[in-house]
Design brief:
Blueprint: E1 10-15, H1 20-35, E2 43-49, H2 55-67, H3 74-81, E3 84-88, H4 94-108, E4 114-119, H5 126-135, E5 144-149, H6 156-169, E6 175-178, H7 185-196, H8 198-203, E7 209-217, H9 226-251, H10 260-271, E8 274-275, E9 283-288, E10 306-313, E11 323-328, E12 335-342, E13 356-362, E14 366-374, E15 381-390, H11 400-409, H12 419-438, E16 444-446, H13 456-461
Parallel strand pairs: 1-2, 1-4, 2-3, 4-5, 5-6, 7-11, 9-16
Antiparallel strand pairs: 7-12, 8-10, 9-10, 10-11, 12-13, 14-15
Helix pairs in contact: 1-2, 1-11, 5-6, 6-12, 9-10, 9-12, 10-12
The structure holds NADPH dihydro-nicotinamide-adenine-dinucleotide phosphate.
Length: about 475
């Protein structure tokens, strides 16, 4: 297979290069691209952060983070590290950006070169960087592409404000809004699979479906981002972007072409039609027992580390089909899957198991579609695997940030979010968060490494269904 190789020189500036995301995700992703010989001869990886550091020391940190993540080829590491540079500056000082731009010009010897600006910083810093980058553009058409990682704002108002702010300095087509879930090859396969499988799509229509369940269990608790997580909780951290995106990809109409505008339009039409019926019965929140003993977490924190909710899509084709979402931290397993439960025939006995389509996204990036059928006259059920394809095999596998960086270089916007989608998801999340506040719903404690609060079962019971657990 011919792998795409970048053919033009470019600069990748990583703002916040001293932080976690850079070390845990970006540097290893860059090594994967190097391993697959995706880079051109000329490219520059430039770390920018306030932390004082030398180029040599930053290169050592860069190397260390790659080595701690995978088995590496030292020759390639050396070759990659030779492209790594560092500049220390503030995010809110125009003077520092002017010096930085002069530094880049000297480094590359060029005034015209594609520059990817990766925002690996907390959202509080976004506007400063946008403004200073905007104000130091060498020309109106300078090819600067912004890569902003979610979260985009913390509610509808702040997301709108952020997008208006960005628009003052950059065209929308130069802004890549990244949710790393959309870089997972299994999530990307979901789209391709739906696009190419008529049989599957015939089943994935509202009138055929009894309910949809989206589960994202994590085994880890809050990690380094404890302070941030405690401010937002899992509804805004996990559900607002990652799980809403999955919901949209599963329930949207299939766009005829895979062009980004069509896909964004279809996702938006679902996300803007999401409905939460105001009742405490439709939401369950939990907090793992040891949460308030974690570093940087206030003893009296009410942040939810588990949430389950019952939603609907206000569209004729999805009328009355419940969608259940649940996610939590420090649970018994790391597992992300979607269960689409098909309707039964009216003549089928009530206690007979329904057919289900199951898409497993984590921990194995594998999509299993299993039809559960009754075998003959017995009460045993058979699993038919209609598709059991590894989402990614062979040499072309890349971690999510690697795939998405290549997309930015190629100006492919398919796997990035659009402004309207983000606003639509914030609107439904704001509605739910306000409902929780107004009704003073507090998270229930659940044991570390358990299955989460038992009350999650009440949600599906409302409609006479059960969560389908995959073991
Ligand atoms: P960090 O908290 O590690 O911050 C990154 C860098 O930004 C720091 O090293 C620091 O660099 C600078 N920084 C931190 N706080 C401030 C502040 N208050 N004011 C100015 N600069 C600050 O963040 P992460 O690397 O974990 O995440 C970066 C972005 O990616 C965030 O928006 C996060 O929400 C998002 N994200 C992170 C994920 C992860 O796995 N870590 C996953 C998904 C999204 P210096 O002081 O040297 O300038």
């Amino acid at each position: 297979m011919n792998l795409y190789r970048i053919d033009k020189p470019f600069i990748l500036v990583i703002f916040g290069a001293s932080g976690d995301l850079a070390k845990l995700k970006l540097f290893p992703a860059l090594y994967s691209l190097m391993e697959q010989h995706r880079f051109p001869k000329e490219f520059y990886i430039v770390g920018y952060a306030r932390t004082q550091n030398t180029r040599e020391n930053f290169q050592k940190e860069f190397k260390k983070s790659i080595e701690s993540n995978s088995k590496v080829d030292q020759t390639l590491v050396k070759e990659l590290t030779d492209h790594v540079h560092y500049f220390s500056g503030q995010y809110n000082k125009l003077e520092n950006f002017k010096k930085f731009r002069a530094y880049l010009k000297e480094l590359t010897g060029k005034t015209q070169i594609t520059t990817l600006a990766y925002f690996s910083v907390p959202p509080i810093v976004f506007k400063d960087i946008i403004q200073n980058l905007g104000e130091t553009k060498t020309s109106k058409d300078e090819d600067i592409r912004l890569i902003l990682e979610k979260p985009f704002g913390e509610d509808t108002a702040s997301a709108k404000e952020l997008f208006h702010f960005v628009a003052r300095y950059f065209e929308e087509e130069n802004v890549y809004l990244l949710d790393h879930y959309l870089g997972k090859s299994a999530v990307q396969s979901l789209l391709h699979l739906r696009h190419s499988n008529r049989l599957l799509n015939l089943m994935m229509k509202g009138p055929e479906i009894a309910n949809i369940q989206i589960t994202a269990f994590e085994k880890v608790g809050v990690t380094a981002r404890a302070g941030y997580f405690d401010q937002v909780g899992t509804i805004r951290d996990m559900i607002q972007s990652h799980l809403m995106q999955i919901l949209a990809l599963i329930t949207m109409s299939i766009p005829i072409t895979e062009d980004p505008a069509s896909l964004h339009r279809e996702k938006y039409s679902i996300l803007s039609a999401l409905k939460f019926i105001d009742s405490p019965k439709n939401i369950v929140m939990g907090q793992y027992a040891s949460y308030t003993k974690e570093k940087d977490i206030p003893k009296n924190s009410h942040a939810e580390t588990f949430a389950a909710m019952r939603l609907f899509i206000d569209r004729e084709s999805w009328y009355k089909t419940p969608i259940y979402i649940r996610t939590g931290k420090k649970l018994h397993e790391k597992h992300t899957y979607i269960v689409v439960e098909l309707k039964k025939f009216a003549f089928q006995p009530k206690d007979e198991e329904p057919n289900r389509l199951i898409f497993e996204l984590q921990p194995n990036e594998r999509i299993n579609i299993r039809l559960v059928n009754k075998q003959g006259q017995t009460s045993r059920y058979q699993e038919i695997t209609t598709s059991d394809s590894l989402a990614c095999t062979g040499d072309d596998c890349l971690p999510e940030h690697g795939l998405l960086l290549l997309d930015v270089i190629r100006k492919r916007r398919l796997h990035f979010l659009s402004f309207p989608e983000i606003i639509a998801t914030w609107q439904i999340i704001d509605h739910i968060v306000n409902f929780i506040k107004k009704n003073q719903i507090k998270p229930q404690k659940y044991q570390d490494f358990s299955e989460g609060p038992a009350t999650q079962n009440n949600l599906t019971k409302i409609d006479g269904f059960k969560w389908f657990d995959i073991h």
